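Today's session is about reading a structure prediction critically. Students often jump straight to the picture, but the first step is always the sequence itself: look for stretches that repeat, for charged clusters, for runs of hydrophobic residues. Only then move on to the predicted structure, which in these notes is written as discrete structure tokens rather than atom positions. Here is the chain we will use throughout the hour.
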Amino acid sequence: MQKKRLGWILLPVVIILIAVVTLVMSSYQKEAGIIDPGKGGTVTVAALAEAQAAATGSGEAAYDAFGKTLTVAMSEVNNMAITNPAETRLQLIVGNAVDAMRAQREAWAAQLSGDWDPAVDGSAAYWWALHPGMQVESRPAPQQTGLTVTQVREWAASTTDYWVKKALDLVE
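Below is the predicted structure for this chain, in token form.
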């Protein structure tokens, strides 16, 4: 009779152990060393890093070069095949990186054309609403206003750095 009770006590422990192992194997395949993002993910991150490097210039020629590299990066993100959970995580990260780069391009375009409207473009809520990828820890509060084009570009660049670093960590 004692041996039957021991079996019933161990059964929930075994079930919990199996559930934990299954969770780790399904959700944390990269961390567990089971699977990595494929070549498509690596190529996508490389394209993002190149666009990130091109975003550091100033003037119309640098803006055009950044726009071209960003277009290539966006194309790579759209064409990235999703075949495992690590690539699904990578897709979310690179999507946020592209969103931050698009915000940077938008601010840069407003700067070059002289169309910066401090009432609209200078509002952090505007950037929060249109570019969810900009919502990271170093962001201005949504009620903050009076942002300059330089501040928004720096915010977008630091956000891009954050997302590209996360993407590089995942593909390495």
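Discussion point for the tutorial: DSSP finds six helices and no strands in the chain.
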